[in-house]
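INPUT
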Amino acid sequence: MSIDIDTARKVAKLARIRVEEADLPRLAGQLSGILGFMEQLNEVDVSGVDPMVSVTPMRLKRQKDVVTDGNIQSQILANAPDAREGFFAVPKVVE
Amino acid sequence: MNPNELTISAARDALRKRELSAVDLTMACMTAMDAGDGLNAFVHKTPEIALDQARLADGRIATGDAPAMCGIPLGIKDLFCTKGVLSQAGSNILKGFKPEYESTVTSKLFEAGAVMLGKLNMDEFAMGSSNETSCYGNAVNPWRRDNDAAALTPGGSSGGSAAAVAADLCLAATGTDTGGSIRQPAAFTGIVGIKPTYGRVSRWGVVAFASSLDQAGPMTKSVRDAAIMLGAMAGHDAKDATSADLAVPDFEAALTGDIRGKRIGIPREYRMDGIPAEIDKLWDSGVAMMKDAGAEIVDISLPHTKYALPAYYVIAPAEASSNLARYDGVRYGHRAKLALGDAITDMYEKTRAEGFGAEVQRRIMVGTYVLSAGFYDAYYNRARKVRALIKRDFELVFAAGIDAILTPATPSSAFGLGEMANADPIEMYLNDVFTVTVNLAGLPGISVPVGLDHKGLPLGLQLIGRPWEEGELLNHAYVLERAAHFVAKAAKWW
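OUTPUT
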């Protein structure tokens, strides 16, 4: 599976990483190389095998649906690049 | 011998006998740490915290309340969140991040009385095998080739941890291992590193890379130290739904040195083309050591070994692309400077382009691709099926009565920093060829230093154990350690 420049642009967009137009050919080449390496997996007979869900057979514990924490607004916001009036501030979301 | 050169077990005994105080031990480590800046292992030093913890430890020891780790100075990999102390996962995107909470592992170590000297260098988000993707620059291996001053990699991703322990800047360090990130650097620096069974150690507060593969573990100067420190790190944690609700045995008590009658598997698929003859020779010598100790050597087959790396490089990036979606410039870390009129998507895209390094960007995009509509079955689901087969390979040999598996730890000794700069990403990935199967199968694996190569650099062997049998695995490693009697240290140049 070879990745073309349009696919590389699309993947970068989906990943929300800005990639300059001039860098797309190099990225496409690297992604193609890595995906080519993965093609080996097609040699394996996986018929009747279920995809692994959990590496150790365990039943996830259920937690009580109760409040165990809270009133820590200042801690939540302490590392925000832009926090105002008790909120995270971001650029305009809706035009 | 300077106190910073002690093992945990020797320091514990000296502290309990009051021949040494935790404060003096910590001061000796801080002196070594400051003198070791050329290794670029410690990237954030915490001397005030260390001295406060050391004084508290001395108080506890005086009252006779001294767990094994009490007063032991450690380095902490930058991947662990430490309250009020920079925790950046080696990434510019977490620049300035000071967690408001403490990871479960560091909390447990501190409750046991351990002392934190500072945070240790690592590959960005633990993605790398040479510590060259770090935002802090390269960590440097204290080992050099004979008559050659070229700087070598300490391995990765836990490169700072490995360099710091090998150079005696601390008594031991925490590491994390997603595809070999504890065991490969341990092998490159002549120390011991164990990746426990998946679920043995809580992942809470450890910055996530690939959640189904990540496990934390100790990196130490001896197998006994690994047993002691793992005991303090392990245990059930309600905050990590995948942590196992199992009692933590006394791992140190498992070190009997007796493996008579145990069956050691030698997987024929691990004899690979292109692996240096020295590695095979080291492996053969390890086999002879186990045999001399009374173990039975059994030829085994793990037929899907060849597919472990490609499966890993689907699954790990897929999970990473999901885990790293949280770095968006909103809640913590870096946010790009925006141009007038930039909307929120511009903020995400610019922030992530500036904040993530090239390798992390590459893996996020590979993960994004294999999870995208139309490719999910062809790549991600197929890789998870192959993973199930890799795990079954191990289950079958253990069911046939194998107690432990002996393999090389790495396909080479430490290479030069910058030597792989023009290599294909895949070439770097091959570093994990012997270790990555263990993460995919969720098993415990340990790297033990066994010898030096013709360049005078350390080489390690890996032992793989049954799930939850870290005690037995450590005992096998203890036998190998005693037989190999690896006592060489890097000649001090830093």
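end of record. Chain B touches chain A through 73 residues (CB under 8 Å).
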